[in-house]
Design goal:
GO terms for molecular function: ammonia-lyase activity. The chain has about 450 residues and is mostly helical. It has two domains: about 180 residues, Fumarase C, Chain B, domain 1, CATH 1.10.275; about 260 residues, Fumarase/aspartase (Central domain) (Fumarase C, Chain A, domain 2, Up-down Bundle), CATH 1.20.200. It is about 55% helix and about 5% strand. The strands form four sheets. It has a two-stranded parallel sheet. Strands 3-5 form a two-stranded antiparallel sheet. A hairpin with a 2-residue loop joins strand 7 and strand 8. The longest helix is centred in the middle third of the chain and has 32 residues. The radius of gyration is 25 Å and the shape is elongated.
Length: about 450
């Protein structure tokens, strides 16, 4: 069970609700109700309640909201998987519980029921630029109104339930869609999965260190205290604990071993910063307007620039740690480091696991492509009123896509290191070896914390 209170939602909990199908429950509607009361009592122009949207902000319109939902329920490309849509519902529900939106609080238990009974909106991949997931949330709103069908996957052993319905009023429309919940959901899922994978990477490195007799001297506590980056220290401490501390074969090893704590630790630090940034927004009242203190505050809290910048940094850091993995993989192919035949073959002239280098370099090339920053671009739309975009949506989407190639790079290293520690068999197809290495990564329980 994930308790939603508008304050304590984590990336791990978003993932558990989305993929583990954990039920959600609501702690209290008090803050949402207080904002709704404020919104009901205000008079005068309020964006989205008595005016149009975007460039139409100065146009007085009576009850414009439902038209907003119908006009913005657009998307393109393939449908996203139901688990990601469910994560979006969890994030938006938690944000609304934080208060400030002005939405009718009676809709929030309906959203919780949708999550718990396997209903998700049919949202598509494209349609946001980091200033609000308008297309995805407008589509969700029309599902609540009964104008679009929900996608339904009944959870195992749970009672059947009717499709969630709620008669959203005009004033509920903008409060419902004024959020980057889909972007944050993707970012949260990516942060959680990458945290597990970066932890598993230390286990893989330990196998390679052992296979080539790499020195543990660079991991010493004294070295880390001289340059106290938290991630570096955590990685070094974890790896020290995994090694047998035998006599090193060389005075200094290549960077893939000697600088592992520094490079991998930087990725751990980047991911920690991104996770903290995402979790702030998971629990933020990023509403425009924000109803607080008996007033409506028009603002730009919906803009996801902090998330885009943080996730850009993570993707860049992943390339660095993957590059060191391929460097260790190259060392595992070299008799000078392993004392075995080239490519860990069973006899001279055989190819052994040479092909793993091709696979790893292919996956690394994909990671490099995905690391291109999104925050160097922008967009100007809506007659120039919306004159900047952070593209956090694309940053989060690319971070999700990084999981597979990083996993493949590490699996190649693990498969080679495992072979180096055993008696190399005759040449054979390596697909099963690689899949076994990938499964070992995904079942690792190593978690790195500062």
């Amino acid at each position: 069970m994930v308790l939603l209170d508008g304050a304590g939602l984590t990336c791990a909990q978003v993932h558990e609700a989305a993929y583990g199908r954990a039920r959600v429950s609501i702690a209290s509607l008090d803050r949402a109700r207080a904002a709704w009361v404020t919104a009901q009592e205000l008079t005068g122009p309020v964006y989205g309640r008595s005016t149009g949207f975007g460039a139409n902000k100065d146009v007085t319109i009576e009850a414009p909201g439902l038209d907003l939902l119908r006009s913005h329920a657009c998307g393109a490309g393939p449908p996203i998987e139901p688990a990601r849509a469910r994560a979006m519902l969890v994030v938006r529900l938690n944000q609304l519980l934080a208060g400030g939106s002005g939405i009718d609080p009676a809709v929030l238990p309906v959203l919780a029921d949708a999550v718990n009974h396997g209903f998700t909106p049919p949202i598509r991949t494209y349609g946001a630029i980091g200033t609000g997931d308008l297309t995805a949330l407008a589509t969700t709103a029309l599902c609540l109104l009964g104008e679009l069908p929900w996608h339904h996957e009944a959870p195992p052993a749970r009672e059947a339930a009717p499709a969630p319905r709620y008669p959203l009023a005009s004033g509920d429309a903008l409060p419902f869609v004024s959020s980057g919940a889909a972007t944050l959901a993707d970012a949260a899922i990516a942060c959680h999965r990458l945290r597990l994978l970066l932890g598993a990477a230390v286990d893989v490195a330990a196998l390679s260190f052992t296979a080539v007799g790499a020195s543990a001297e660079p991991l010493a506590a004294a070295v880390q205290e001289a340059r106290p980056h938290p991630g570096q220290a955590a990685v070094a401490a974890r790896l020290r604990g995994l090694l047998a501390r035998e006599q090193a074969a060389r005075i200094q090893d290549p960077y893939g071993f000697r600088a592992f704590a520094q490079v991998h630790g930087a990725a751990v630090d980047a991911l920690a910063r991104a996770t903290a940034t995402v979790e702030i927004d998971l629990n933020a009242a990023a509403e425009n307007p924000l109803f607080a203190g008996a007033l409506a505050w028009h603002n730009g809290n919906f803009h996801a620039a902090p998330v885009a910048l943080a996730v850009d940094a993570v993707r860049t850091a992943l390339v660095q740690t993957a590059q060191l993995s391929t460097a260790r993989l190259a060392a595992l192919m070299d008799p000078a480091y392993t004392g075995r035949h080239p490519f860990l073959a069973d006899r001279p002239g055989a190819s052994g696991v040479l092909i793993l280098e091709y696979v790893a370099q292919d996956a690394l090339a994909e990671l490099r492509h995905l690391a291109n920053p999104v925050t160097t671009g922008t967009a100007v739309i809506s007659l120039g009123v919306e004159d900047h975009a952070g593209f956090a949506t694309q940053a989060a989407r690319h971070a999700l896509r990084c999981v597979e190639p990083l996993e493949l790079v590490l699996a190649c290293e693990r498969a080679a290191a495992t072979r180096a520690l055993d008696n190399p068999p005759p040449d054979r197809p390596l697909t099963d070896d690689l899949e076994e290495a990938r499964r070992a990564l995904t079942t690792s329980t190593t978690h790195l914390t500062h």
